[in-house]
Design a protein that fits this description.
Blueprint: H1 3-11, H2 16-27, H3 31-40, H4 45-72, H5 82-110, H6 119-130, H7 136-146
Helix pairs in contact: 2-7, 3-5, 3-6, 4-5, 4-6, 6-7
């Protein structure tokens, strides 16, 4: 199964979207990096460092700017009509998803096979590599939802 198909399937599980959004919005994590780490079962510090570096670059270049535009287009913005504004927001959302997919596929290309790490170990290692480790309970919540 491709990483994108796996991520879509994983994100559809109960509790995963909420755990991912909390890790992203409350703890400054990149959920694509976290999901990749679980998918690849990786906890190798060198692989995680390379992945975190690539993710930071892509975050700054594409993901964060697209997310900010999408969020800013959500509330009414007179004098702009709601329907076209919301249609544009959906297009930006599609671009944000495409950027997340490209990131996940790029990260998957950085690894060969699976590393054998359990979900929580992979999440903790990826969060540490990101540079701003999330609270253990927030990572444990995502690991449990992914199980």
């Amino acid at each position: 199964m491709s990483i994108w198909d796996w991520a879509l399937e994983a994100y559809a599980r109960p509790g995963v979207p909420e755990a991912c959004l909390a890790l992203q919005d409350e703890h400054g994590q990149n959920t694509s990096l976290l999901l990749w780490a679980v998918y690849a079962e990786v906890k190798d510090p060198e692989a995680l460092a390379r992945a975190a570096e690539a993710t930071r670059a892509w975050d700054a270049t594409a993901l964060v700017p697209l997310r900010e535009v999408r969020r800013r287009l959500k509330p009414p913005l007179p004098p702009f009509a709601d329907a076209p504004r919301l249609a544009l927001r959906e297009e930006v959302k599609g671009l944000e998803l495409a950027a997340e997919r490209l990131l996940l596929e790029t990260l998957a290309d950085l690894t060969e096979g699976r590393g054998g790490a359990h979900a929580l170990d992979a999440l903790e290692a990826a969060s540490a590599a990101w540079g701003r480790p999330a609270p253990p309970n927030a990572l444990a919540e995502l690991a449990a939802a992914l199980s």
